[in-house]
Amino acid sequence: MALTPLVYWAQRHEEIYLRVELTDAQNIAVHVQENVLHFRAQGRGAKGQNEYEFSLELLLPVKPDEKRNRLKAMRQKEEGFVSLKTVFLFVYNLVQFLGFSWIFVNMTVRLFIFGQDSLYDTFHTISDVMFFCQILATVEVLNAAFGLVRTGVTPALIQVVGRNFILFIIFGSLEEMHHQPVVFFVFYLWSAIEIFRYPFYMLGCFNTEWKTLTWLRYTVWMPLYPLGVLAEAVAVIQSIRIFDETKLFSIPLPEAIGSSISFSYILYIYLVLMFLGLFINFRHLYKQRKRRFRTKKRKAN
Ligand SMILES: CCCCCCCCCCCCC[C@@H](O)CC(=O)SCCNC(=O)CCNC(=O)[C@H](O)C(C)(C)COP(=O)(O)OP(=O)(O)OC[C@H]1O[C@@H](n2cnc3c(N)ncnc32)[C@H](O)[C@@H]1OP(=O)(O)O
């Protein structure tokens, strides 16, 4: 037959504290039914190692701890969301890393094998993967907009819209641009930063860091960003003549006013926007760099 342990009682306004005098207690089972509390466990009590149990009848039924239950449920939901978010970001970053690594390695190998000739057919060999990666990159604007990552929507939007304008409008829609060496420089500069940025984020998903990679992510953009914008500006300027000649995307006007407005006017405006975008994102990246290294220094002290 089970023995009864020594039980100490303490009480506050709405709470009761019970201390059961057992050491090395195992298989503890506590149940509350209405106003009766049942306890059963094995352990060392007043009668040595044994099975102990008791039932305690209280004056009123025990109130379920709703606040704690609600908090517990919320925490479980939050944990589920956090792990789903981590998996999503990790997979996204991994796919982008693989895509941009393929682009970077492919272009490097082709440059070594074919030399200058490789500059002229970059678009045909690389564009499909670049289209895929850059369409996928729109996810970064959504991540920022929905607060999945700690970054501003504007820098992400400038980055994605800026690159996709060059990729789809300037390169994608003009066959004459496909064989221009500028495609090589633009694609190479874009992919050169991404092979550091995405693995840096992948490690970040697991709160891990590799100092050299962090340094590369927050430093390599310094020469690459202005060079990238410069290469993109060259591509826009080269395309102006072609848009004028082909009248592609030109806006038709009523005959009384003139024939049409050339798309090149939009490109002149875009050239100004590009340097504005460069200024905004350069400042943003500089702030991110300072924030990252300042926090690290403070943590180290
Ligand atoms: C409004 C529309 C106007 C359109 C006007 C068009 C104007 C055109 C201008 C175009 C200029 C573009 C030129 C460009 O194409 C040229 C080049 O790209 S050249 C190559 C060099 N380029 C770069 O170096 C830029 C690379 N890109 C970026 O760095 C980002 O896209 C950018 C948004 C610019 C900055 O990134 P972010 O703000 O996210 O900074 P952090 O990396 O420091 O991240 C902040 C925190 O968020 C976490 N995070 C971010 N993303 C992820 C992710 N995918 N997965 C997991 N975590 C992520 C990150 O870890 C940081 O968290 P913590 O601070 O906790 O570490």
Strand content: 5-15%
Number of strands: 7
Element-level helix/strand string: EEEEEHHHHHHHEEH
Q: Report the major sheet.
A: 3 strands, antiparallel
The quaternary structure here is single chain
Strand adjacency order, main sheet: 3-4-5
Number of helices: 8
Report low-confidence residues grouped into runs of 5 or more. none
Total number of domains: 2
Which ligands are bound?
ligand L7CU2Q4V
What would you call the shape?
Answer: elongated
Q: How would you sum up this structure, described in words?
A:
The chain crosses the membrane at residues 82-105, 125-149, 156-174, 180-200, 220-243, 263-282. It is found in: Endoplasmic reticulum membrane. Keywords: Coiled coil, Endoplasmic reticulum, Fatty acid biosynthesis, Fatty acid metabolism, Lipid biosynthesis, Lipid metabolism, Lyase, Membrane, Transmembrane, Transmembrane helix. One of its GO terms (molecular function) is very-long-chain (3R)-3-hydroxyacyl-CoA dehydratase activity. Belongs to the very long-chain fatty acids dehydratase HACD family. The chain is α+β, with helices and mostly antiparallel strands. The protein folds into two domains: 7-63, no CATH class; 69-292, no CATH class. 62% of the residues lie in helices and 15% in strands. The chain contains eight helices and seven strands; from the N terminus they run βββββαααααααββα. It has helices at 66-114, 122-136, 138-145, 153-172, 181-204, 211-217, 221-246, 264-300, and strands at residues 7-11, 16-20, 23-33, 36-45, 48-57, 251-252, 260-261. The strands form three sheets. The chain has a three-stranded antiparallel sheet, with no helix packed on it. It has a two-stranded antiparallel sheet with strand order 1-2. Strands 6-7 form a two-stranded antiparallel ribbon. A hairpin with a 2-residue loop joins β3 (23-33) and β4. α2 runs antiparallel to α4. The longest helix is centred in the N-terminal third of the chain and has 49 residues, at 66-114. It binds ligand L7CU2Q4V. Ligand L7CU2Q4V is lined by residues 89, 92-93, 149-151, 155-159, 161-163, 189-190, 193, 197, 201, 204-205, 221, 224-225, 228-229, 232, 273-274, 277-278, 281, 285, 288.
